[in-house]
Write a structure and sequence with these properties.
Helix content is 78%, strand content 0%. With 140 residues, the chain is mainly alpha-helical. The longest helix has 27 residues, at 9-35. The chain is globular, with a radius of gyration of 18 Å. It starts with 8 loop residues before the first helix and ends with a helix. 4% of the residues are buried. InterPro entries: Pex_N (IPR006845). It is a multi-pass membrane protein. Belongs to the pex2/pex10/pex12 family.
Length: 140
């Protein structure tokens, strides 16, 4: 007998909002910490800020592997079912690593700006389609 209970879509969306708020708190704490450093270190850290943010994102994503839920889901007592480590890794790559790499690509080579804009548009369209699928089916 399956004892798992399906989480309501509203709870899943609330968990997503909580995750975003937690991520914003971590990023603002990082900004505050950088502002307390001496000016010479601040300049260096400003250049390394995308990598520091990526590290924070990776740390937050590790809870999905070890706890079986994101921080927001843990607060609401919503957990993944059938969400393998491979799915977590693919989700991390698509949600965090690809946008980071695209941003850095534009920073390194300005002539790739137009290509990256098109890729971001395609990603936005895919996110909208995924969101509509989620609302219709109730699963990811």
């Amino acid at each position: 007998m399956d004892t798992a209970v399906k989480a309501l879509r509203v709870e899943q969306l609330d968990a997503h909002v909580l995750d975003r708020e937690i991520r914003d708190i971590v990023h603002s704490s990082l900004e505050e910490w950088i502002s307390t450093l001496p000016t010479a270190f601040q300049r260096y850290m400003d250049r390394a800020k995308p990598e520091l943010r990526l590290g924070c994102e990776a740390a937050l994503w590790t809870t999905r592997i070890y706890a079986g839920s994101s921080p927001g889901q843990g607060i609401l007592d919503v957990f993944y079912r059938g969400y393998t480590t491979r799915k977590v890794a693919v989700h991390f790559v698509i949600s965090v690593l690809v946008p980071y790499l695209l941003k850095r690509l534009v920073d390194w080579r300005q002539d790739t700006h137009r290509l990256v804009e098109r890729l971001e548009g395609a990603t936005t369209l895919a996110n909208i389609a995924h969101y509509l699928y989620f609302l219709e089916e109730g699963r990811l």
